[in-house]
Amino acid sequence: MMYALLTLALGLVVVALAMRFFLLSWFPYLHYDLINFLRIFRFHWLFSAYAKKKPFYTILDRFLEQVQRSPEKPFVLFEDERHTYADADRLSNRVAWSLLRHVGVRAGDTVALLLTNEPFYVWMFLGLAKVGCAAALLNSNLRSQSLLHCFSCSGARVLVASLLPALKNAVQEVLPTLREKNVIVFVLAEECDTEGMESLLDKVHTASEEPVSTSYRSHITIQSPALYIYTSGTTGLPKAALINHSKIWRYSVLLRLVGVTSDDVIYIFLPLYHASGFFIGLTGIIERGGTLLLKSKFSASQFWDDCRKYNVTVIQYIGEIIRYLCNQPKKPNDRDHKVRFAIGNGIREDTWSEFLQRHGNIWITECYGGTENNVGFINYTGKIGASGRVSFIHKLFTLHAVVKYDAENYEPLRDFRGFCVKVPSGETGLLLLRITKAFSFEGYAGNLQQTEKKKLRDVFKKGDLYFNTGDLVKIDKEGFIYFQDRIGDTFRWKGENVATTEVTDVMLRVNCINEANVYGVKVPGNDGRTGMAAIVLKKGHEFDSVDTYKIVTSYLPSYARPRFLRIQNSFAVTETYKQIKIKLVEEGFDPSVIRDLLYFLDNNKKNYSPLGEDIYNSIRHGIIRL
C-alpha cells in the first residue's frame, strides 16, 4: 500500500514537472500574465466598490484613509524636510480653509498652479480636492501667450504661482491681461507689494487646521473633472487634457500593479505638472500608503547619494534619465543601494542592459501610455527593450489595433470598403486604442476641434470609435510592444513633446525671418530628436543671430528651442503647399552634407554661432552637450 502511494506521489510530481516544463516552453510568460491579471481583477473589484460609494470614493478619500491608518508615517521627504501623513492632512486643511475664506473659491471651481516641485504643491492639490475644486497643472516653462492660452482653456479664475523670480516674472508679463479678465493671482509669499498680486502663505499660516466638511465635495462623481494636465499634442499650442476622477484611479493603480507596497520609498524628480510625476509619483504613492522623496530637479551626480540617504526603493525615469545615470563616472559603490524597482518609459535596449550590469538586480518596468490615452500597456515581464505587453486581457476586450499608415498624407490607410487595415505581427503601424464606456477619452478642455481630431470613426466597422495615439509601434508574435516613432509635426526632446507649429510661430516673430520649417533631428548619444529649423530670410535682410537668440529664449522653453538653424533660399513644398521635411530630417545638421549656412544655439555667446566641422564633431562626440 505504502509502495503504491509513493509511486502515485512520484508520478504526480513527474507529471507536474512535465506540465511546468511544457508551459514554460510554450508559454514562457504565462505566470507573469496570470499575476498581472489577478492584480488587475482585484483593482477592478475594488474600483467597483469605490464607484458605488456615495459620494464617490476619490484618491483624496484614500489619502485620508492612510492618515487614519498611519498618521506618523513619513509621506513627503524634501531636502531636510520630513512630513508625515498627519502633517500633510493638517497643512492641506490650512490650504483648504485659506482657499475658502481668503481666495473665495467655490466647489466646482478650477485653480491653476504655476509651481515647481516642492511640498506645497502637494498641499495645494490636497487642499483643492478637500473643497471640491479641480487643479490646472501649468508647465512652469510656459511663457507669454502660451501661458495665457493654457490658463484660459482650463476655465480657471484663480492662479497660484511660485515666488521664484523666473515664475513671478512670467506672471507679471501677462498680469495686465489676467487683470482684464478679473483673475485673482496669488504668490507663495508672506507678503507681496506687486499691484494685482496677493500673498498666500500668510493666509495659509494663520488658517485653521480643523478638518474640512465633506459637504464641499459632495457633488463629486466618477466623471467630475479633477485635473487639467497639458500636452503639446501633434500641432499648435499645448492642450489641456481633462482628467476625471475615474482616470486618476486608472493612473494611480499602476504602482499597485507592478508590486509596489506601503513599505516603499519612491524617488520623484520629474515635474509634478507632468502626468508621469504626478500620477506615478504622488497619487500612486498615496494609493499605496508609501513615502515620496520629492526633488526639485534631477541631478545625475547626486542621484545615487540621494537614494542611499533616503533609503529609496523605487525610482521613476524617462529614457534619457537612465542614460544620464549610465554616463556618470563609475564608482565602487554603484551597487550600494536599496532600489529594487524602476518604472517609466523610453529606455533604450542598450541602456537598459548597461544599467542593470552596473547597478545590480533592479526590476525595470517599462510602460506605454500618454496623458490623454484611454488604454495603456505594461511590460511586467522585465523583457529588455519592450515598451509593454499585450496580455490576453487586451485581446479579450479588443482594446487596441495596429494599422497601416500613410506617411505622406499623415493618416491611416483604408481599403476599398473604407476600413483600416491591420498590420501583421512584427510590422510597424499606427497604434489605435478603442474608445468604450469603460475606457473613455475625455478630450481637451475648450478644444472640441482637437478632441475630435484624435478620434477615428468607422475603423473596422460602421460605428466603432478609436483613439489615434499618433505613435508608430510594432507588436511581435509574443505580444510585446516596441515603440518606433511619433508621427505628425511633433518630436520629443528631453522628455518633452515639442509641437513644431508652436516653435514656427515663435521663429516668425524674428524680424529677419520670412519662413520657418521646424523639425527634429537625431544627435549621436542622445535620445529623441532635438529641434532644428530651416529658415528663409526676408528680402533685403541679413541673419540677425542675436535677435533670433533673444526671441527664441524669451518665448520658448529650453527643450523646444531649435539647437540648429539652416538658412535656405526657398522651401520645397508638395502640390498642396505642405512643407517637405523628410529630406531635411535625413540630412540633419552635418556641414559636410549641407551646403546651406548652418548655425547652432550658443548659450555662452548668447547668439546663434556658425556651425562648422569642428563644432559639429564636438557635438557628435559629446564634447559640446545639448
From TrEMBL:
GO terms for cellular component: endoplasmic reticulum membrane; plasma membrane. Residues 505-576 form the AMP-binding enzyme C-terminal domain. It is a multi-pass membrane protein. One of its GO terms (biological process) is long-chain fatty acid import into cell. It catalyses: tetracosanoate + ATP + CoA = tetracosanoyl-CoA + AMP + diphosphate; a long-chain fatty acid + ATP + CoA = a long-chain fatty acyl-CoA + AMP + diphosphate; a very long-chain fatty acid + ATP + CoA = a very long-chain fatty acyl-CoA + AMP + diphosphate. It is an enzyme of class 6 (ligase). Residues 64-379 form the AMP-dependent synthetase/ligase domain. The keyword Protein biosynthesis does not apply. The keyword Zinc does not apply. Its main location: membrane. The chain crosses the membrane at residues 120-139, 265-286. Keywords: Cell membrane, Fatty acid metabolism, Ligase, Lipid metabolism, Lipid transport, Membrane, Nucleotide-binding, Transmembrane, Transmembrane helix, Transport. One of its GO terms (molecular function) is long-chain fatty acid transmembrane transporter activity. Its EC number is 6.2.1.3. It is found in: Cell membrane. Belongs to the ATP-dependent AMP-binding enzyme family. This is long-chain-fatty-acid--CoA ligase.
